[in-house]
Design brief:
The complex is a heterotrimer of chains A (469), B (151) and C (504). With 469 residues, chain A is α+β, with helices and mostly antiparallel strands. Chain A folds into three domains: 71 residues, no CATH class; 246 residues, no CATH class; 120 residues, no CATH class. Chain A is built from 15 helices and 18 strands. In chain A, α2 packs across α4. Helices cover 71% and strands 0% of the residues of chain B. Chain B is built from five helices and no strands. Chain B is elongated. Chain C folds into two domains: 297 residues, Tubulin/FtsZ, GTPase domain (Rossmann fold, 3-Layer(aba) Sandwich); 150 residues, no CATH class. In chain C, the strands form four sheets. A seven-stranded parallel sheet of chain C has the order 3-2-1-4-5-7-9, sandwiched between helices. In chain C, strands 6-8 form a two-stranded parallel sheet. In chain C, a hairpin with a 2-residue loop joins β12 and β13. In chain C, α2 crosses α16 and α17 crosses α18. The longest helix of chain C has 23 residues. Chain C is globular, with a radius of gyration of 24 Å. The chains are: A alpha+beta (469), B mainly alpha (151), C alpha/beta (504). At the B-C interface, loops of B face α17 of C.
Amino acid sequence: MAVLACLCACHRGGALEDAIKKAMVQRDTTAQRFDSICGIIKANPDQYSAYVTQDGEINYQALAELVEEVGASLRPAMHWNVMAYGGSSFSLTVYFERSGSMVPYDDAGGHGQLKKAVNDLINYFPAGDKAKINIVNDDIYPYKGTVDSFLQDRNIYASTEGVGNATYTDFQKIFNKILEAQTPGNVSVLVSDLIYSPADTKDVSIDKILNEENSLATNMFKRYKGKSIIVHKLTGDYNGKYYPYNNNAVDYNGMRPFYLLIIADTKVMDAMAQSKDYQQFMDVQGSCGTYRFNQGESSVDWNVVPDWKDNAGRWRVSRGDRCELTGAEADATTGVLKFAVAANLGALRCPEAVLCNDANYTVESLSGFKVEIAPIQPDMLTANNKSYLDGKTHIITFTGDYKGPRDNIKLSLRNDFPEWIEQSTCKDDTNVMAPTFSSTTLGLSSFLGGIQQAFGAGNNYFTMEIAIK
Amino acid sequence: MKRIVFLVMGIVITLAFLMMSYSQNANIFELLYFSQGFNDQLYNLSCYPMVAVIIVSLAWGGALVYYYGINSVKFDRWYHWLGVLAVVTCVAPVLCYMLISVLLKDNGLDYGGEAAQFVMQLFAMTAVLYVVASYSVRWWSSNCRHTPFPQ
Amino acid sequence: MRLFIFAIGGTGSRVLKSMLMLSAAGVRPLDENGKPVPNVELVPIIIDPHKGNEDLKRTEQLLTAYRMIRSKLYGNRTDVDGFFANRIVTLREIMRDSSIQLNDTFIFNLSAVERNKFREFIGYDTMNEANQALSSLLFSNEQLENKMNIGFVGSPNIGSVALNEIKDSDEFKAFANVFNAGDRIFFISSIFGGTGAAGFPIMVKNIRQAANLDINNRDVLRKAPIGGLTVLPYFNLELGDDHRIDKADFIVKTQSALYYYKETLTGANDSNLNTIFYLGDQVVSVPYMYDPGEHGQRNRAHMVELVGAMAPLKFAGLPTSQLSDENGYPLPSSAYEYALDRDTLDVDFKALGSETRALIYDKLVKFHLLFIHLNTGFKDTIGQGYTLDKPLIKTDFLASQFYRTLSVEFMNGYKDWLSEMYNNMRSVQLFNVGEWDMNKAIHDVNTSKSFFGRKSVDNGVFKSVMNHLSQNSTYGPEEVELKFMDLFNRAAQKIIDERYENIN
């Protein structure tokens, strides 16, 4: 008995590890639960000194490593980005474009979609109350007021009138400054119409301007490694002067697209994408097109679902860095090995149509495995598979004539340039009466294409490898 | 000396058993019976160490009770020892089944069939551990040290 | 120290048998401090021309069995505790001079005496007329015609003549040869019969006058401490028409003999006999059948014999200072008598004096429990518990000579001894004879009380205690017998201490 008592007492991590494990097993990975875990550390700072800084604060980095370790020991392995709860984890910096063509978005008679979108971003960001707000046009200028005053300001353009030179937007300067100013964990959001309007474009052909825009984008983003950008297209009421590329201002009253560019390190972006706490921040309301630019592949959280209605054959999931199905045997009657994988594809910030289109996936295997992808519906959840599906968005079903003795399945989601960008692009914005004017932006594809080229076209969103033995 | 060797061996085997109940990849409770979802949940809910502790406690407890609690010449035959083994090997799986059922239920899981199959292996494990415990502790029993086999 | 015990006549054999039972139970001579006297060897020598005497035969058989059992248990060791503690040897066993040929027996060879009629022994027919007339005056015609192989049939005047020849025998020479300084001599005899009454003073005289004999160690013998148990009349005879012993003569003969002893052995300044134990009982025993024939004289054991058996052990434990002066010369006689604590016809342990109880109670109870265990539980124990500790006690142990001798030969003798004493007057009721329940085995002694009633004693309890004791005991591979007896002895002591009422 004494031996057993010692064994229990020596159980690594003790109450802290148990609390983390319990929270993850119960899928209660909320800020509130995290606070209770921090409470354990604060109540016993001597015992958990490894998780306390010299200042007596929680060492989020160390705690995050422990959480990751505990999560990795679970079946299936779980992730919980507790860094997000750390006061110094992720910070938000908003860059609010104040060029001449942006002012009509905030017309008093309009619905104020642009301001609402910016306010939502700030509100839904966990540390949004500490967000830094900047005004950008020819340069970046700090917003003089507070976050609250910004949120409560009904006419932001009026209150920021006179800040910088609103006649043109120097994207090169702006993006360079944004990217240079990014500290680790910083999330930057640029609110812009993404209309490339450099100074002195008189008599310059549109093609030249667009090519210049494309090159500029490629050149800019090439210099910054490990970055990830999510672009959201939104539309809002516009009432005022519109400045086409030839600078012949025209009055326009109608819908116009504007864009939110979320810029962060890829790791930070992945963490936010997988975190419930950043769910609303990432799910921008009113977004009618989104695309994520990645310099590398994203890590997607996924696991094999043992309790799935369509599974056929037998296997055992081995644990470790690499997913292996050991002891695999195809169904004795049909000769088919079929298993389901639940994945958090939502974290990729890809449109559902892209994610659920089998054609967007590349599958390599000896046994000719094929995949079917379907979003997880609430009625798919059962008591027993809940833990495997929780935090996941899609079910990927692998089907193959597995005869053994081993196979290796490699599944990739190709990172193709989305169609909506092309559809949202125009090369001539002088005709405000054109039917596409309300939904297109001059040279959008040139600019975003430049970023795509900088990040390396042809990348996959993610790759999943499953060894079968 | 022989007695000490047996005791140490018994403790080592038991500790190894307990350690293996913590293992993620080579868990002793997944060697004889495995159902992915069910076993994953048992692992996540830390059932294995609890089950291991129950089995070890009952096996060693049963052996200690037999050799030092009962320790009577009226119960020093091999079939008395076997009787305690039977009781222990029945009680341990039943207790484990109850524990597992409660834990699964508390977490909204429904693995009744798997749980029943799972505890079948515990009969054998408990019996083996009871034998191990018996050979570890019996040497100092005044009346039952020769049970079930002479020293 | 060797104690040479001359058991003379039928009474001598019977007392010796009781002493044998006490020795089997582990009763040892104790010194004045109550500690066992070290290195004691008992050398019983039975002197009785009546070889057909059943009491003598039974005693000899038990002596042989005792010797065999003890040899198996302890070999030649002397200072041991437990059952069969006293080492009992024959003269032959301790003889150093091999020029003397002796049988390895406890019985003194009286062939020169027992072959003849008394008249032939004294050469009556070759005497002149005057001597014949004197002989006829001293001996009746019946006595002269008496064949001495049936003893001296209550005629000490015959015995005194016949036994005087002993001093010339090989046995006596052998005895003188092995007798060393520090050894002691004890005589057991009755005073109211023939053989014992005559033999005792003659033997004492011959030893004290050893200087006149052609034997070794004469000086040592002359100074030897000598004790004697003189048994006064204690049994009754069932007489037929043809009898040569008359119970009515017992008292007269006793009185005469006592006078004679006073003159020659136990006088105030007489140093021939250092210690004399007088023992008798006015309560008349159940009448014994007078049968001087071949298988006659099978008399029931008697309490007097049991008490008498303690006399030689007591004598062995007396300090030398009470027996010899500083120059080694024997001191004048001191006499001992014995009395019960309660004058009752049913004598149990509680009726005995405290000194006697202290001496024999634990030992006899242990032996009796052994007797019960061997008859009721031991066989079933083999193959379990302590029997499986090394050295193993296997089923073939039951077929061993040791076990058969102990459980059959010796224990039957013990059972008879107990029964006979029980069925005699006074009735000795130390144990409830025939009772196999250990809880009720000791007469008028219950098991002690516990919270749940009386504590229980049975074979299971013995097995348990022996199992426990065996754990911490080590015996050699050849000590199977010792293991069993030693464990039982220690277990029994523990059980007596813990589970029976204490009457000491």
